[in-house]
Design goal:
Layout lengths: L7 E6 L10 E6 L7 E10 L2 H8 L15 E9 L11 E5 L8 E5 L3 E3 L6 H4 L2 H15 L7 E5 L4 H12 L3 E6 L2 H10 L3 E4 L8
Parallel strand pairs: 8-9, 9-10
Antiparallel strand pairs: 1-2, 3-4, 3-6, 4-5, 5-7
Helix pairs in contact: 3-4
Length: about 210
Amino acid sequence: TTAHTRLIMRALQVEAFGDPKSLRVSELPERAPGKGEIKLRMAGVGIGFFDGLLVKGEYQIKPPLPFVPGSSIAGVVEEVGDGVKHLQVGDHVAGFALLGGLAEKITVNGMACFAIPKSIPLVDAANFFVAYATGLYGLRECGRLQAGETVLVLGGSGTTGSTAIEIAKAMGARVIAAASTEAKRERCKQAGADVTVDSSSDDWRN
């Protein structure tokens, strides 16, 4: 045995671009955090359309193979590198990493993560950055949504769509959600939509 035993973690690794079903569990070395980085013990990963494109090799950025996908993350801080002041060991955090989330551990830039209350389930927090930040940016910064206005959410049953419904309602808007099946429209209602429309019908816009 060597003086410094290498720590090994399990991860889902993309070895060739293609069907996400081809991902396989691999054993990879953990990486100690460098300056400005933290290591997390993973608790949840939000999987979205972006991740699917990366795995298929259809996104505008093609990571070098092999790579571990998973971008929207949540976990518990296990180690803190030099220069990280806003987080400490034991903190529960949500964050964003372009790659690496589908693993038992991840080492990531500390500024890409922030502490969350321990009362928030980490599995739920894993979707925070991608879904809620996308919805808030679209509705508040781009759309300038005001209380009392009506907003139409397309694809309302998906992760980003359902969180957009929640955000729009919290901002005081009336929400119309479009979805293609009864089950999806029910999901929109559960998220808070005032009205749902069947986007699979030819005249749904009317």
